[in-house]
Amino acid sequence: MTDALLEIHTAVLGGMTRGPKPFARRAETEAEDFPLADLADYTFSQRLTDESDALTVLWERKLTSWDFEERAAWATAPPRTDERRAEIYGHLGFEDGLRKALTTAAVISKKPGHTTISAEFTPWYTRERAEARAFYWPAYEKRLRAKGWNSEAIAGLDEASRAVVERLTDPEQVARRQARGLVVGYVQSGKTANFTGVTAKAIDSGYRLVIILGGTLNLLRKQTQRRLDMELIGQENILRGADPEDLDSLIGIDYIGDDEEWPQFVSHGGRPSVLSAFDIERLTTRDRDYQSLLQGIRGIEFEKRERGLPLYDPRNLHHSDARVMIVKKNKSVLDKLIKDLKQIQNLLGELPALIIDDESDQASVNTTDPKKWESDRPKRTAINSRIAQLLTLLPRSQYVGYTATPFANVFIDPSDSEDIFPRDFLISLPRPEGYMGVQDFHDLDSPIPDDERTYANSRAKSHVRGIYSPDEIDDKSMQEAMDNFVLTGAMKLYRAAHGVPDGPYRHHTMLVHESVRKDDHAELALRLKTMWHQAGYTTNSTGHARLADLFRRDIRPVSQARAAGQPAPASYDELRPYISQTCSRIRLGGNPVVIVNGDSDRYFDQLELDFDRQPHVWKILVGGTKLSRGFTVEGLTITYYRRTTQQADTLMQMGRWFGFRPGYQDLVRLYISRAEKLTKASKSTVDLYEAFEAICLDEETFRDQLAQYAELVDGKPLVTPREIPPLVSQHLPWLKPSSRTKMYNAQIEEIAAPGRIIGPTAHPLSSVDLAHNTEQWLPLLERLSTTPDTFTTHDEAHGKDYRLTALTASVSHAELMGVLEKLRWWNAAPFLPHLRFLREISNSPHLIDDWLLITPHYTTGRDVSASVRGSVPLALSKRERRRVQIFGYISDPKHRTTVRRIARAIPPTTDPVTERFSRDRRGAILLYPVIEDDPATIVRNGEVDPGKVAMVFALVAPASTAAAGRPPISFSAIDKSRSDAPIVDTSN
Fold it and tell me: What would the DSSP string read from start to end of 855-906?
């Protein structure tokens, strides 16, 4: 029986492609075909009370779509607000009663959307145009709904993918134009879903060649290939006319017969080309990367319906099949592709192409040192060079990078037209619902005191278990981690047996990552195997006693606090029957431990680590580096992490414990070192948990600043990607945003260093500039006391006391800034980031009271003192400039303790003079008048020539200024089209 009301509403809403319109009049028109239909608001409202009613579902999806719509011409209110929904109801002409019913049925989402930094672009991807040719996007959307995606998630993806596609070039455009952009997500957070959506919309709109660069090993490439085959390309394009029932016709076709999820692959209901759309030809398959000539030239050739017209003409474009390939970032593979493309070079100028670079900060970024280039011509690394060649060969190609760690990408030189700097747009995706990220393992800004934190109010207490032994071998914590792996596996089986859908429990894994060395992996795996066999999980009472104790003090209380609605055993005895089954799954194949550290595809093919084709993967994985880029470790529940690195992006990518954990978030545990040596030779240790917290702060700073500059002013972008102020921060001094080779184009914008010595050394060379600087200091020199004070520092290491006799003066922050702002430099760049921080302090006067100016005073006749323009006599220090016209470190090491204590950066000393001058909110400055010439030639009658003295200083900002909340270091990218932009050698 026909549902008349549903038919009417479907037709009306389907016609509203340009936003909501008056509903009643359009409904009456459609109702002419259904004379018995009841259009009363009461009937409509009553049906909305049933959330499973198809009419309710229809409206929930449409309203959510309008709620999320960005840049909506029909709306004045921002997306995802009560005001936007009220505006929607107003356009529809609905009264209060119906509004309330609809709001109950379709709750207004208040979650943040994506953030976009964009250059101006010509709008072409209108909703009408997208709707007119939509085929693969609706199929993909349908597949996502079948996976359980709700309307909110679909609408968010729809808008975020639209934001990418609309900033690409119109594929029908006559003029050639390449757009380059970057999409930033979270580690293991669904970036693939976004670029699959972008691919669907791009090929619907006319892009006919899509090249997806998918990792450096086939392990990731195969995972990405299967994902696109399953959710976008679909069964008919994979079969290409082959009969699924005819085994002979299936030779060479993947998935059928060895992939149990083949029935869930998208089905378009027939060959798309027969359904008035177009087919997709795969140039790669699950098991085969791009292979020259096998599918190469034949696969890339494009037929034209109208031979006299270019391929991009709509009369050709929309009748041509699309080609999609997922290729490794591998030199030989890309060379094969480039070779085949060159053989159809005459067509390439007409071909709209899209290059999607997954994990675009890995291998794609040029890591050669610009100082070693010849004639400023970039010397490119292997993959960067091949990407540049592809962009040159395909003049209508668009490049979109995807990463969770964008630091290396934003440091690319914007002026290098052949490189991949995101000059057109940078889009930050929102944190998806159900995602466990860094924030879920840390109690950032929690107001709850440590001693009051519980499993219910503390994420860290629930999920994190510290490893406090700096020893390389800590069997106690390792054993507990393994025990928790067994317990959590048993908990999954228990829940599945008590009615919880077992899909998320298909795989169950533990990752142990301690070292980068393969020899260490083999030794560790042997240790784990021995530990497993001696654990007594099924053979003795000792093992069960240990598991019972861990269940009582860890698993049970955390699950009670974090998963109250899940089935839970009341005691270990109730869970114990599932322990044996858990151990059987882990032992399957004879080995509970798998080493993952090979360099070849063949190695990984032998591991049986295929989460798509294996019915269950319940294993302990040792290694990590090879799995730390894009590849999803399914079912990861327990992580044991002790691997150090000094690059934030590398460390973040190793955070495989991030991701979606449906049905078992409460069971996730992270064992992480709180005292690990950076290297085996290191004497000091670092806190890896603290490091991840610092990365979280760096990441949030980046995203917050993106949001800050994303607003449009008079319809135009406030800034473009090329003009973005410093976005990348560094909260730990030993943990840089990226590797040194990826930061050649990084310049430091601001350094916030409360309590640290700041000693600029690039003072001017000319006597005019030196005299100018000396003049700036004169007002402060006039404030110096005439009676010196003697400060004493005790050196415990050598059992010695050191004394500093000096003149002092208290100066205000404004007075000091009046001097610093006017100073001239040989190179201002090194001090400028510090100066920016000192400017920021000016905006927080409650954090600083004054500065103590300290200048050494000689009490013997052997040293040289002289006045400057009538000042009190000042001690002159003779120094020579070292390389590139700068001084070495000026401040005396024996003086640094004194000024740091005065600034309250270190604990109290035993020196009463230092303590008398030390106070909260006070900074300290050591001022050294430095001469380079023989004093006899520049000092006359006790006066030194101001053009012959460099007023060199070192300062320490008060510890109180840390409360300003500034990240310690912020960076931006150097644009070499600006001749005054220095390159920062980040190795210093």
Answer: EE---STTS-EEBSTTPSPEE-EE----GGG-----S-HHHHHHHHHHTT-S
| Rounded CA separation 27/9 (Å) | 7
First to last CA, the chain: 77
CA distance 499 to 62: 33
- Amino acid 706 reads L
Place of tokens 């009370």: 49
Written as six digits, the tokens of 631 are: 């590849």
Q: What is the mean pLDDT of residues 25-38?
A: 94
Q: What is the pTM of this model?
A: 0.73
Question: What's the confidence (pLDDT) of residue 857?
Answer: 87
Q: How far is CA 370 from CA 294, 412, 604, 971, 987, in A?
A: 39, 11, 36, 18, 14
| Of the candidates 358, 365, 369, 359, the residue with the CA atom closest to the CA atom of residue 410 | 365
Model confidence band, residue 862 (pLDDT cutoffs 50, 70, 90) = low
What are the tokens at 647?
A: 């690059």
* Element (DSSP H or E) covering residue 817: helix 813-820
DSSP-based three-state secondary structure for 476:
helix
Q: Convert the pLDDT of each residue in 471-496 to its tens digit.
A: 667 889 999 999 999 999 999 999 99
- 3-class secondary-structure state, position 357: strand
Q: Which residues make beta-bridge pairs with 874?
A: 866
Spell out the residues 6+ positions from residue 114 whose beta carbon is closer than 8 angstroms to its own.
Answer: 156, 159, 160, 163, 427, 428, 429, 430
Which tokens in the block code for residue 336?
């094969």
Question: Using CA atoms, how far apart are residues 548 and 542, in angstroms rounded to an integer?
Answer: 10
Any residues with CB less than 8 A from the CB of 988 and at least 6 apart, and which?
Answer: none
Q: Cα dihedral angle (682, 688, 692, 694), rounded to 10 degrees?
A: -50
Question: Residue 484's closest CA among 492, 495, 473?
Answer: 492
Q: What is the DSSP letter of 555?
A: I
SS3 label, residue 716 = strand
pLDDT tens, 373-406? Answer: 666 677 788 898 899 999 999 999 999 999 877 7
In contact, 411 and 420? CB cutoff 8 Å: no
Range with the poorest average pLDDT among 146-155, 412-421, 485-494, 716-725: 716-725
Q: Give the model's confidence band at 500: pLDDT under 50 very low, under 70 low, under 90 confident, else very high.
A: very high
Query: Cα dist. 378→591, 656, 766, 983 in Å?
Result: 49, 35, 35, 14
Please write the tens of the pLDDT for every residue from 929-952: 999 888 888 988 889 999 999 999
pLDDT > 50? residue 579: yes
Average pLDDT (490-504) is 95
* Res. 740: pLDDT tops 80: no
**971: nearest Cα among 825, 844, 839, 832:** 832
Q: Radius of gyration over alpha carbons of the chain, in Å?
A: 33
344, 296 contact by CB (below 8 A):
no
Helix ranges (H only) for 271-369 are: 296-300, 314-317, 331-342, 345-348
pLDDT for 541 equals: 84
- CA nearest to 93, candidates 31, 46, 27: 27
Find the range with the poorest average confidence among 227-241, 735-749, 872-886, 932-946: 735-749
> Cα(11)–Cα(58) distance, rounded to whole angstroms?
11
**Which pair of tokens denotes residue 477?**
């914590």
| β-bridge pairing 669-673 and 464-467 | parallel
Based on the number of CB atoms within 10 Å of its own CB, is 596 exposed (0-12), middle (13-18) or buried (19 or more)?
Answer: buried
- Number of other CB atoms surrounding residue 233 within 10 Å: 29
Instruction: Encode 628-694 in three state secondary structure.
Output: CCCCCCCCEEEEEECCCCCEHHHHHHCCCCCEECCCCHHHCEEEEECCEECCCCCCCEECHHHHHHH
